[in-house]
Amino acid sequence: MSGAERAVFAHRFMGLFVLAAFAAPFFEAPEYLDATERTREMAVSMTAYVLAGLIVALPRWDGRRFPAVPTALVTVLFLVAAQQGYATTPPTPDAGQSPWFHLGFIAMLFALGMRRRPGWAFAVWLGVTALSVLRWPVVNGTIIPVETYHVVGVAVMITTWMVERQYDFFLRRSEETQRILDNARARDEAEKDMRHASSRRVDEVRRLAGGLLEQIAHDSAEVTDYDVQQFRLTEAQLRDSIRGRSIATPHVLELTRAARARGVAVDILDERGSTPSPEVLQSTAQQLAEILSGVQSGVVTVRALPPGDPAAVFIVYDSQNPDDDPVAVEIADVTGVASVF
To answer: What integer pLDDT is reported at residue 146 of this predicted model?
Structure first.
């Protein structure tokens, strides 16, 4: 998740805020310059300090983790600024003192934390703290902690670290909640689709077999051979509507019913699972009508091919006559262009 954006760390005025914090020590810098005899070290300290502040503050605050190279450069520059800054200030036993860059130190820890580089912020804190501790005077064998501004740095690091941890926690919870909502919505849609499919299926059965079912239920007259034939034709239509669902349009079902009534064997098979384009459906009905027109016998197979196949539908008519060649029609996917073989 290191490359992901964190909106909580992205603000257009964040750079100005950090620059202002880095600039604050310069209001007292002239006093430090007047008080030190090591102006060269002070100049190096201020130069490294300014470069570190500009590098960490000026790039766009987009909520992403700060790149490793500028992060390492900022860390080195600030440690150089701290080391040279301490070199210009002789240690004293006075408690509560702090170096000229201590406000920038807090700003650097904050900036690296908000740049999502807590490890490098800790490295800066550790380096500056070590430089400070080495300057603490020893009185009667006891080290006197004359500088305590590092404690504020610890608080800043912990705060920025907790902000990111909490943000990640709430982000994961938000994503989990959204995932649950999406799954629930998908289940609802699936249930609606199932209900609609069931409703369509009932309507289809009612349309195809409703009259015959009512006849069976209410007509006590003797069943004739014609009735038996109609039952079989209707059964075949229902079978076509199931086995050839994606291409078994009402027009196709009527064509196959009429062909079966004349003695033609018809099979409609669906290996596609999804409805093809309107052009394919129209071409299928047209080609099937041309093949079945005037045919009194033989076998016709209409097959919807799997998705991804260049052909959407393949129709084969075999007259069962050894002297005749089978007729095959391939209907292209999407366009519905028919090719006869």
So the answer is: 65
Torsion of CA 282, 287, 293, 298, to 10 degrees: -130
Q: Angle between the 118-133 and 149-218 helix axes, to the nearest 10 degrees?
A: 170
d(CA 116, CA 157) in angstroms, rounded, equals 11
The C-alpha atoms of residue 317 and residue 251 are separated, in whole angstroms, by 19
Per-residue tokens: 253:
């079902």
Residues 6+ apart with CB under 8 A from 153: 105, 106, 109, 125, 128, 129
- What is the spatial order of strands in the sheet that 338-340 belongs to? 265-270, 299-304, 311-318, 327-332, 338-340
Cα→Cα distances 22→112, 206, 241, 292, 304, Å: 13, 81, 76, 88, 72
- Whole-Å CA distances, 305 to 178, 214, 242: 37, 37, 16
Residues with Cβ < 8 Å from 63, sequence gap 6 or more? 5, 6, 7, 8, 9, 10
Contacts (Cβ under 8 Å, ≥6 apart) of 73: 52, 55
Q: What is the pLDDT of residues 275-306, one digit of tens each?
A: 899 999 999 999 999 999 878 999 999 999 99
CA-to-CA distance for 18 and 199, rounded, in angstroms?
64
Assessment of whether the complete model's pTM goes beyond 0.70: no
The sign of the CA dihedral 185, 187, 191, 197 is positive
Contact 110, 28 (CB under 8 A): no
